[in-house]
Specification:
This protein is mostly helical. The protein has one domain. It has 15 helices and no strands.
């Protein structure tokens, strides 16, 4: 009994900490929007307002459904029946934590699911790690394929020694192997259990579904950037140009996603986009387009959180009324 009371107090403490961190994230979002120096007349012009609103609503939907792949991995690792209605609020709340400097809070925030569903924190954390790595791979692969010869031209231009690239890859593999070996020695039984859950047909099906999901999400998000470039410049791009631009924006999104300490990939996406798109699209269009798209995405993240929060609170209220506790 005492153990249950203690656990309840710990859960309440985590909840209060989570609420404080969420408030900090919302403040950071407001500051971020305020800090952008952009000509808002471009957004609010009668010609563009409708299209920007459609982009906003489309991205809100993408944010709300964005936790589906992660849920599938958690469900398989934990063996627990989890509905997306139980996951979505935690996911969208964690999503806005990416605007806090450090680029780790959005991942740590997901572990609230372990408290809510009474499952192991290690299982939720492993699901998050797999989800992040797989989402990066799922977006990087189509980017490489879309850019095609652009990669070869860029590598030749940079004159990168092949031996150094191979050495860097080998070093990364060795580091990962060492970390895994240390963890295996430390938590052998737990890792054996998780490995048995990962290397099976069910898990491969989940990964295949997640791959398709992330490819579609990545291409859609990159396509929104390209659509904004087109709206600002007033130009219509050819299909081969659109494919290359989407490939570059996919690469920029991945770079911003994996860069430590970059809240929401701020600065990284801009740098990568400018580097690759220079000479293809006017520099002022690239910068204005990325800033405007980022503002739309930031607002969409916040709207997605508010919408899901309202639904979450309404469901709790209806439950109270249903069971006569209100």
């Amino acid at each position: 009994m005492m153990k249950m009371i203690k656990q309840e107090k710990i859960n309440k403490l985590f909840k209060y900490i989570g609420n404080i961190v969420t408030i900090v994230a919302i403040i950071m979002i407001v500051k971020k929007i305020y800090s952008y120096q952009v000509d808002y007349s471009i957004i609010f012009s009668s010609q563009n307002l409708f299209f920007f609103t459609v982009i906003l609503l489309f991205y809100v939907i993408m944010v709300i459904i964005g936790g589906v792949p992660w849920m599938g991995i958690v469900r398989l690792l934990s063996g627990c029946k989890i509905c997306y209605s139980e996951v979505v609020f935690i996911y969208v709340k964690s999503n806005i934590l990416k605007y806090i400097p450090g680029n780790i809070f959005q991942y740590a925030g997901r572990n609230e699911l372990a408290i809510v569903k009474n499952i192991r924190h290690s299982e939720v954390a492993l699901a998050t790690i797999i989800d992040v790595i797989w989402s990066v791979f799922s977006m990087l692969l189509p980017s490489i394929l879309m850019l095609g010869d652009q990669w070869k031209a860029w590598l030749c231009h940079q004159e990168l020694p092949v031996s150094k690239v191979v050495m860097a890859i080998c070093a990364l593999i060795v580091i990962v192997a060492i970390v895994f070996f240390i963890l295996y020695k430390w938590k052998k039984q737990m890792l054996d259990n998780m490995i048995s859950k990962v290397f099976n047909v069910k898990f491969l099906r989940v990964l295949l579904f997640n791959f398709v999901f992330y490819v579609l999400i990545g291409i859609s998000t990159s396509g929104l950037y390209v659509a904004v470039f087109s709206l600002i410049s007033g130009e219509f791009y050819f299909l081969n140009e659109i494919v290359i631009y989407i490939g570059i924006m996919l690469l920029a999104i991945v770079a911003g996603y994996i860069t430590p300490g970059s809240p929401g990939g701020v600065g990284v996406r801009e740098a990568v986009s400018l580097f690759f798109l220079k000479g293809m699209i006017d520099e002022s269009v690239i910068l204005s387009g990325i800033v405007i798209t980022r503002i739309i995405f930031v607002i969409a993240d916040f709207i997605a959180y508010i919408v899901v929060w309202i639904i979450f609170k309404m469901k709790k209220l209806l439950k109270k009324i249903q069971y006569g506790n209100y």
